[in-house]
Design a protein that fits this description.
With 704 residues, this protein is α+β, with helices and mostly antiparallel strands. Helix content is 20%, strand content 29%. It is built from 13 helices and 37 strands. Strands 6, 7, 8, 9, 12, 13, 15, 16, 20 and 21 form a ten-stranded antiparallel beta sheet that branches. Helix 7 packs parallel to helix 8 and helix 10 (524-534) packs parallel to helix 11. The longest helix has 23 residues, at 584-606. The chain binds (2R,3S,4R,5S)-2-(hydroxymethyl)piperidine-3,4,5-triol (DGJ). Residues 310, 340-341, 385, 452, 454, 498, 500-501, 517, 520 line the site of (2R,3S,4R,5S)-2-(hydroxymethyl)piperidine-3,4,5-triol.
């Protein structure tokens, strides 16, 4: 049976996920209305569901049920998902239904305006192995002479069922403090989550979860959504006074327009939604699974332990220095060596050189090949930092092409970190960018690019272009195209997305990269909260996490090497410290911990993640795969000297037994579930432990 069914008698479509269902209906007025998003149900049951009408119908209210993509016009007073202005000034859209088609799990519903030659396709896609529903739209202007101005063009509007209360969970932050989880009641208002920065942003991540205020980590219904877009975006949640909550979202921030030229088609990005039971923990795990199965290109590949030079050398890179670091890195068991900023042009600080992508001749007199060869001789892969969208005004590129940057006539251009943004919506700029990246990768056989972007967009104009606002979207589309092309032409190339840390983390970038640099903040205490917030949507496999020096450059906090490792081992482990200053003992401990990470890595990167909370200040994650369980527990401080008690685990079989691979101790599963894992934490603050359990044959269960 197809996962999408149609009941012609009731003009009803039913989409079935793994354990959930979504139903929509064509109304008599030929708008597509929301019927159900929740537990699974049959087509016959869905036909019994009434339309969600306003409980407070009067001549002042919109009485109609919730629409799948509300437009402007008619008795509609909530936030529209789609706002258009036709060439004659008319704004209201009035749809007629054309037809629909179903191809596997992909449903397309085709509509057209009653008068103007504007077409809209609503896309829905479900996968048999997931409860995530992917939604997006295609808009087409079939007029042969007049453009249509799109004032807003969202991918989807989501509707929560009638609940006793509505609470929202979302992620806020800033540079160095990304992915902070916030949870509060949805106000009876329109609440806007947005980025106006031309990139996803550190400040808000396009993930949102709604529940009735009673869900917790282990239980409760959660309706969540995530937008697959790496430029400016907006999601507006509307809770109305009569108890309905909907949210609409898509690319672009408010006020931007797109002039849809005669004959032009625009596809909006995927806005994915997930209904789950089992609380926030189960919602996260369902997202992780979806990302692995349907977003990432290489989900089964194990992410290598990498070394990155940034915190060790800053801009001060040269061949001898990098080779010295590479030698140390290789001796620790590192698998990929990444040289960060400072290797090209006149880039000896953030003042100059960005845009001039040829090796600095003083620092690398023979180019990068000798370094790349040495890294490979040492048994590692070779990666490089790039920032393809940016330029320093003090660069040969800018001197040759001052018109290639985002700028506006009669306005000065704001520099941030002494740099400007290239307008990749321009085909010539995008082609040039692709060409140098392609050459760089080809000439040096580069295995890995860290693709950075260190400032938001400002004065985003395009003098001389008739529809300059479109660059906000076209710039991101161009980045996607360049990444897609590079990956197609260099199948071995892996990419880490970065924007001054976690400024560009979303499902759109993950569809064409392999991991993300989570935050420039590598302080392990701050990282615990950052990583926990991150884990609401994104899996550990893509969460790049480095061990750096102590005291930390951002916070000046001093922490033990072991603690720093245990925090970073919860993701894709990297080392970013100045290895030339590490003591023999530190290098020995690091070698052992990297070896330990490689043992737990399959479970961390490919297993199922559970966020655990112990007593006192203890927090922990548990990763489970087949018969292996990895627990990483962190106790930043012990108020009054009180140590935490045992840590209750989840996802172990009560009637099985589990052996600690390091101590040999064996525990009954029922004991781990009911009483908890006794933690052998060192004394004092910044205590942490890694426990690697494997299911033991029953006869090995001993008294301990
Ligand atoms: C910001 C990144 O997040 C850092 O890791 C580093 O690559 C610098 N940019 C280099 O300029």
């Amino acid at each position: 049976m197809s996962s999408v069914q149609f009941d012609p008698d009731h003009s009803l479509w039913l989409l079935q996920g793994l354990t959930s269902a979504y139903a929509i209906r064509l109304s008599e007025e030929e708008t597509v209305r929301h019927v159900h998003w929740g537990p699974t149900l049959s087509l016959a049951e869905a036909a019994l569901l009434p339309e969600r009408l306003s409980p407070a119908a009067s001549s002042f209210e919109e009485a109609a049920g919730q629409e799948e993509l509300p437009v402007e016009g008619g008795a509609r007073f909530g936030p529209p998902s789609m706002l258009v202005r036709f060439a004659d000034g008319t704004r209201a859209v009035q749809w007629r239904y054309d037809t629909h088609d179903i191809n596997g799990g992909h449903l397309r519903i085709h509509l057209h305006d009653r008068h103007y030659p504007l077409r809209l396709t609503l896309h829905y896609r479900v996968h048999a192995d997931s409860d995530v529903i992917e939604r997006w739209t295609t808009v087409e202007n079939r007029d042969d002479s007049a453009p249509v101005t799109l004032l807003r063009c969202d991918s989807a509007a989501w509707t929560a069922p009638q609940l006793s209360n509505y609470r929202m969970s979302h992620l806020v932050g800033a540079w160095n403090s990304e992915f902070q989880l916030r949870r509060s009641d949805v106000p009876v208002a329109e609440t806007v989550f947005t980025s106006r920065r031309g990139m996803t942003s550190h400040h808000a991540n396009p993930w949102l979860a709604i529940d009735d205020g009673t869900a917790d980590e282990q239980g409760g219904e959660v309706w969540s959504s995530a937008l697959a877009w790496s430029g400016s975006w907006r999601v507006t949640v509307h809770r109305d006074p009569v108890g309905r909550t909907t949210w609409t979202g898509g690319f672009g921030h408010e006020g931007l327009t797109w002039s849809l030229a005669p004959g032009e088609t625009l596809d909006t990005p995927v806005f994915a939604g997930l209904y789950s039971t089992g609380g926030f923990g189960a919602a996260s795990r369902a997202w992780h699974e979806y990302i692995r199965r349907h977003v990432l290109s290489h989900p089964d590949e194990t992410r290598p332990v990498l070394y990155n030079s940034w915190e060790a050398t800053g801009f001060d890179v040269d061949e001898a220095g990098q080779i010295a670091l590479a030698a140390r890195a290789a001796s620790l068991g590192i698998e990929l060596f990444v040289m960060d900023d400072g290797w090209f042009g006149a880039r000896v600080s953030d003042q100059a050189g960005l845009g001039d992508w040829t090796p600095n001749p003083t620092r690398f007199p023979n180019g990068l090949r000798p370094l790349a060869a040495e890294v490979r001789r040492l048994g590692m892969r070779f990666g490089l930092w790039v920032e393809p969208e940016m330029v320093n005004p003090d660069s040969d590129l800018y001197r040759a092409h001052p018109d290639w940057v985002l700028h506006m006539a009669n306005r000065s251009s704001t520099e941030m970190r002494n740099q400007l943004v290239l307008n990749l919506a321009r085909p010539d700029t995008a082609e040039w960018t692709h060409n140098w990246l392609d050459r760089l990768v080809r000439d040096h056989d580069i295995d890995f690019l860290k693709w950075d972007a260190n400032r938001p967009h400002t004065e985003a104009g395009w003098p001389g272009h008739g529809d300059p606002d479109r660059l906000w979207i076209a710039h991101t589309q161009a980045i996607y195209r360049i990444m897609d092309r590079l990956r197609a032409d260099h199948p071995g190339l892996r990419i880490e997305a970065c924007a001054g840390g976690g400024g560009r983390v979303d499902l759109g970038v993950l569809a064409r990269t392999d991991q993300v640099w989570t935050s420039d903040n590598t302080d392990p205490i701050d990282r615990i909260a950052i990583q926990e917030g991150f884990s609401n949507l994104y899996p550990a496999q893509v969460m790049s996490a480095w061990v750096t020096d102590s005291p930390n450059v951002a916070t000046a906090r001093q922490t033990p090497l072991r603690f720093r490792f245990h925090v970073a081992m919860a993701g894709a482990l990297g080392i970013g410290g100045d290895l030339t200053t590490w003591t023999t003992e530190e290098l020995k401990e690091a070698t052992e911990l990297i070896a330990a990470y490689k043992r737990i890595r399959p479970t961390v990167q490919h297993g199922t993640a559970y966020r655990l909370r112990g007593s006192g200040s203890l927090s922990a994650v548990q990763y489970a795969s087949d018969d292996e369980h990895v627990v990483l527990a962190w106790c930043p401080s012990r108020p009054y000297g009180h140590g935490p008690g045992p840590l209750r685990l989840v996802a172990v079989q009560p009637d099985a037994s589990y052996r600690d691979r390091d101590t040999g101790r064996t525990y009954p599963g029922s004991f781990l579930l009911g009483h908890g894992l006794p933690l052998d934490l060192p004394a004092g603050d910044y205590a942490s432990v890694l426990v690697h359990l494997e299911r033991a044959p029953d006869q090995h269960l001993e008294q301990w």
